[in-house]
């Protein structure tokens, strides 16, 4: 260890954070070299929950492999499914019904909000405030109930299928979402009062974990992590899929590049998602929710790629098909992995308490990183 | 005067008189020692139970949860059940730890907490030891507890514990200065270090109101400093569960952990009682200058009720901090003390001395 990093001096402390540690948000192992409380080096070690998902997908049919991706970034499983469905549809060249498109976007945005809510609570918990976590769960529960009614699942949804969505919406869906919009509008102001405006919180976040625009791009950061460094990288805007080019929303960016900027971007994104849902909820077109597809899907020979904007950044699915019933090769581009790679860059020179804040602001979901 | 107050003084006096009549003076004082010792230990345990339950209820209230509500009426026996569980748990000592210091540390912390209970008047005339340097005694003895924490962290053979203990050392030693200066400002106003004198001096109004703005500044600084000294959030860096998992007591289990825990809660009680004694009149009822009728009505409320109400109010405030604020970083914590609180409190002492000399207080 001492030889490996090269920067370590005698008296430096090498401590292991994780694999089981409350602030690694899963089984991440960080080897930290400390001089006093100051971080000299952070080395993430992966592999504790590796399930070789990409290899598994190669033996699953095009309908089946979507289910596996729910288990990766379990906080935005809907959006992961969406990417897979899009990629398969690209290969099959299927046009999906308008109703399915709207339902997919609605579900994506609800998922994004649920994910950001959990992150908001966890972020506050990482810097030592436990109470916001419970408050965030109160609102997340409402979304989970809506999901449960329509999809039958609360976490690992498998609602998106090639050609559309699996079932039609639950009759209560519209009303419940409308109630949620009213509820959450007041709650998000409460979030701001409770955490955003807190002096201690701002002191903990501002100027911590800075990453410049150029560095964010070169590390391959996406999502709120990159957008906080003023990188325009919202897939919904750059390569609009479904009906994102028809709804009115802004790409949320900030210039701070620090933890607080990342915080603000995510909170603003929650408001943005709310506005997208508001625009769509009264205008769900009638019609089919699924296009007619064959029972056994066979993609033509070739390479296909589709990417979507998950709560953490760009999630891409790359399929190489040889024309069979199963993909020849699948590769996922997960946002967490690239974001985590910038951790050492962000954390160097900060205190150990800051490391926890930086990790929180990256919004890590370990199965997404360690596939 | 407060002669018509219902107080516990008669009980202590009658015990004292009876012991002296029945036994010779040496034996009588020995019995008094034993009684005081047993009361302190009992009080220590009961207080721990009550405060842990209170913390759980307060946190549940703030976090929109129910909190413990199954064991006993309204969950009141929950902490008793917790204690039972802790008592039967295995007390582990990690490999490579300094066994002697590791096992000694919780007792050091606990004994310190017990010692400081001595000069605290729980009601009128209900005090173990009315020493003439009471306030000085409290500040002096309380600083010993940091040794216990450093001992625990160092002897654990765990890097998290070591970091936690070092943080705790820096933190407690620094914040003691501000807390001490706030205490001194009231001593300056009263002109005595004896706790009974300080309480008596607030007969016509509490120092918080009598001492004008400097007293309020001293009170605010005192509350901030003692929150830091007792390792409570937002200053709970020593334990910092999201960074150091549990800091200096990571390796402690079962009853050894419980002793740290108990000591922490008793320390909160102690600092809040010091705050209540210095700024809110201790057991003294709310008296306003010469309003005889009003003061007389206030005297009907027992002095112990006054004392406990004030103390538990301050405890609630400190718990409120814990369940609302995020945690500071170690450099921010030390900055706050050395760059802000200490200069302010030093200036405040000058100001309050001026007020005391000129007699500008009520």
Task: Please tell me about this protein's structure.
The complex is a heterodimer of chains A (371) and B (362). Chain A is an alpha+beta fold and 371 residues long. Helices cover 47% and strands 13% of the residues of chain A. Chain A has a 3-stranded antiparallel sheet. In chain A, strands 8-9-10 form a 3-stranded antiparallel sheet. A two-stranded antiparallel ribbon of chain A has the order 2-3. In chain A, a hairpin with a 4-residue loop joins β8 and β9. Chain A starts with a helix and ends with a helix. The mean pLDDT of chain B is 85. With 362 residues, chain B is mainly α. In chain B, α6 runs antiparallel to α7. Chain B has 14 helices and no strands. The chains are: A alpha+beta (371), B mainly alpha (362). The interface between A and B is medium-sized, with 32 and 28 residues. Chain A: It catalyses: a quinone + NADH + 5 H(+)(in) = a quinol + NAD(+) + 4 H(+)(out). Chain A: Keywords: Cell membrane, Membrane, NAD, Oxidoreductase, Quinone, Translocase, Transport. Chain A: GO terms for molecular function: NAD binding; NADH dehydrogenase (quinone) (non-electrogenic) activity; quinone binding.
Provide key terms for this protein.
heterodimer; A: 371 residues; alpha+beta; 3-stranded antiparallel sheet; 47% helix; disordered N terminus; B: 362 residues; mainly alpha; globular
């Amino acid at each position: 260890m001492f030889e490996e990093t090269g920067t370590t001096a005698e008296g430096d402390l090498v401590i292991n954070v994780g694999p089981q540690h409350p602030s690694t948000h899963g089984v991440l192992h960080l080897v930290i070299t400390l001089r006093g409380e100051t971080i000299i080096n952070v080395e993430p070690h992966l592999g504790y929950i590796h399930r070789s998902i990409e290899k598994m997908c190669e033996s699953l049919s095009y309908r089946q492999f979507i289910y596996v991706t729910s288990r990766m970034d379990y906080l935005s499983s809907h959006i992961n499914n969406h990417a897979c469905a899009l990629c398969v549809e690209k290969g099959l060249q299927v046009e999906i019904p308008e109703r399915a498109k709207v339902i997919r976007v609605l579900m994506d945005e609800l998922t994004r909000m649920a994910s950001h809510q959990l992150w908001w609570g966890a972020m506050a918990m990482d810097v030592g405030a436990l109470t916001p976590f419970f408050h965030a769960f109160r609102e997340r529960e409402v979304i989970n109930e809506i999901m449960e009614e329509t999809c039958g699942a609360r976490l690992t949804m498998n609602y998106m299928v090639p050609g559309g969505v699996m079932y039609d919406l639950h009759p209560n869906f519209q009303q419940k979402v409308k109630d949620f919009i009213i509820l959450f509008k007041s709650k998000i102001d409460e979030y701001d009062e409770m955490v955003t405006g807190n002096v201690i919180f701002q002191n903990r976040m501002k100027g911590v974990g800075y990453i410049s625009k150029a560095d964010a791009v070169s590390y391959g950061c996406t999502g709120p992590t990159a957008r906080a460094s003023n990188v325009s990288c919202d897939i919904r805007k750059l390569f609009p899929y479904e009906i994102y080019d028809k709804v009115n929303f802004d790409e949320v960016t900030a210039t701070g590049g620090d933890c607080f900027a990342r915080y603000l971007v995510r909170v603003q994104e929650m408001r943005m998602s709310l506005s997208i849902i508001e625009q769509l909820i009264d205008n769900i077109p009638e019609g089919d929710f699924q296009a007619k597809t064959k029972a056994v899907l066979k993609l033509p020979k070739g390479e296909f790629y589709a990417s979507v904007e998950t709560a953490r950044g760009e999630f891409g699915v790359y399929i190489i098909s040889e024309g069979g019933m199963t993909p020849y090769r699948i590769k996922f581009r997960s946002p967490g992995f690239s974001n985590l790679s910038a951790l050492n860059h962000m954390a160097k020179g900060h205190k150990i308490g800051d490391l926890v804040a930086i990790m929180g602001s990256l919004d890590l979901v370990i199965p997404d990183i360690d596939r | 005067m407060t002669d018509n107050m219902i107080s516990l003084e008669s009980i202590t006096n009658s015990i004292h008189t009876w012991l002296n009549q029945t036994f010779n003076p040496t034996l009588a004082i020995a019995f008094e020692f034993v009684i005081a010792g047993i009361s302190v230990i009992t009080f220590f345990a009961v207080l721990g139970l009550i405060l842990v339950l209170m913390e759980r209820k307060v946190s549940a209230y703030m976090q929109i949860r129910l909190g413990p509500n199954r064991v006993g009426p309204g969950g009141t026996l929950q902490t008793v059940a917790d204690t039972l569980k802790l008592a039967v748990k295995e007390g582990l000592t990690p490999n490579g730890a300094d066994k002697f210091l590791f096992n000694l540390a919780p007792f050091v912390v606990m004994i310190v907490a017990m010692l400081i209970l001595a000069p605290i008047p729980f009601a009128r005339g209900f005090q173990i030891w009315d020493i003439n340097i009471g306030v000085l005694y409290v500040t002096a003895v309380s600083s010993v507890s940091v040794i216990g924490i450093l001992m625990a962290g160092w002897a654990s053979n765990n890097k998290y514990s070591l970091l936690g203990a070092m943080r705790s050392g820096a933190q407690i030693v620094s914040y003691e200065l501000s807390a001490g200066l706030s205490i001194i400002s009231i001593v300056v106003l009263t002109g005595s270090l004896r706790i009974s004198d300080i309480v008596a001096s607030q007969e016509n109004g509490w120092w918080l109101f009598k001492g004008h703005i400097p007293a309020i500044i001293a009170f605010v600084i005192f509350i901030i400093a003692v929150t830091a000294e007792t390792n409570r959030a937002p200053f709970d860096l020593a334990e910092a569960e999201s960074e150091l998992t549990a800091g200096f007591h990571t390796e402690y289990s079962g009853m050894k952990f419980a002793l740290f825990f108990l000591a922490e809660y008793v320390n909160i009680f102690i600092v809040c009682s010091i705050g209540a004694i210095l700024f809110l009149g201790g057991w003294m009822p709310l008296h306003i200058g010469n309003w005889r009728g009003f003061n007389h009505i206030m005297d009907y409320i027992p002095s112990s009720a006054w004392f406990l109400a004030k103390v538990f109010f301050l405890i609630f405030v400190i718990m409120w901090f814990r369940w609302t604020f995020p945690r500071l970083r170690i450099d921010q914590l030390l900055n706050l003390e050395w760059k802000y609180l200490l200069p302010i409190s030093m200036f405040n002492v000058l100001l309050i001395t001026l007020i005391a000399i000129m007699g500008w207080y009520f």
